[in-house]
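Prompt: Have a read of the protein record below and flag anything odd:
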Amino acid sequence: MDKLIVEGGHTLAGPLPVSGSKNTALPLMAAALLADGVSTLSRIPDLRDVKTFANVLRISGAAVRFDEARNEMTVDASGVNYPEAPYELVKKMRASFYMLGALLGRCGRARVSLPGGCAWGPRPVDLHLKGMEAFGADIRLEHGYVVAEAKDGRLDGGVFRMDPSSVGATINLLLASATARGPSRIENAAREPDVATFGEMLRKMGASIEGLGTDTIEVEGVDALSPVHFYNASDRIELGTFMIAAAMAGEPGRAVRLTDAAPEHLGPAFVDAFTETGAGYRPGNDYVEVTAPDELQPVSIETAVYPGFPTDLQAQWTVLLTQARGNARVRDTVYYDRFKHIPELHRMGANAIVVQNEVFVAGGKPLQGATVMSTDLRAGVSLVLAGMVAEGETHVLRVYHLDRGYEDLDGKLARAGVAIRRVQYDEFANPSGNEPPEE
């Protein structure tokens, strides 16, 4: 198993390139199943989740090829004839549940395992199922699988209001309704740029969709979609993560450039909070320049659905607050128990207390290097950020979580001035040095 060893105290100088969006790439791959032919997807990040989902697509009969060096994927969906996504693959990542909408839209039926995912939750799929039923699907559960069928092979369409808004459910319902017989409306739909970019691919394929980026999306079902060549969006969560890293570990007064970025996708809540810390923020057409301040100011945040502060950046923000002089809090209203990084930060000396869905941070106390455990994707990257500013070495274990969502993270940081390296370790070896004790 791999771990990352981070030596603190090295200045992040940049530049740092931002990869294509993971949260958009997976829906784009699912969308390619709706067209009979070959679709080409550019700027697809080389990630474990992408490769896992490619295998899920192959089970259905699609031919998938991925050129990691060019970040380009081709999906030939002309052979899709097996509308099933098995437990062995779906358990590895929740986004595999997009196969429900994709297979319903393409085949009129689907048998998809209930998903697994990161070690925090709950993240129920009830909205997905209720929405499919509202659009005319017959839904039943069989031995851990969702079995969905559309009458005569196509959904009728309908109206569904989400409570709460959900990115995953919005995407699944768009996949299913694009080829429905009649019109569909999704109310309280997710407004995230990930959803809007995905919807633009469907429109390029011939889908009739209005209202992308708003809370009401109207879909007029069409008989068939066509394969396309589509470019993925830049990863806004990776951009936000790198901005936080630059504000913490950059040289005060010297800008760090983040390239291949889409700053317009960040949302005003994050940008406003970021600039309140005293960090310099200068966006360009496809880049952002961040300048670390002489002293970070503590800024409390509360996560919310887009355009609110992203829940996928709250763990990283918590680490930033440890470097500010003063007290602040992070409140997560999206996922109430997403604080598994806090016990690991305690091992590094962080002064942070979790109370229900809030963490209170007293900043200004130096962090110390320690052996810490990654429990999920965003918690894992927050520990890498902490290691960058800690005294001594930090060993971040179980970095396979990071490999799910950050392309070449250690390589990018190393080229930008961070002392970081990847090594293998035996998690079940007898404890010695920096290895964890046996459970």
User: Anything to note?
Assistant: The first strand starts at residue 2 and ends at 7. The chain has 14 helices and 24 strands. The first helix runs from residue 22 to 32.
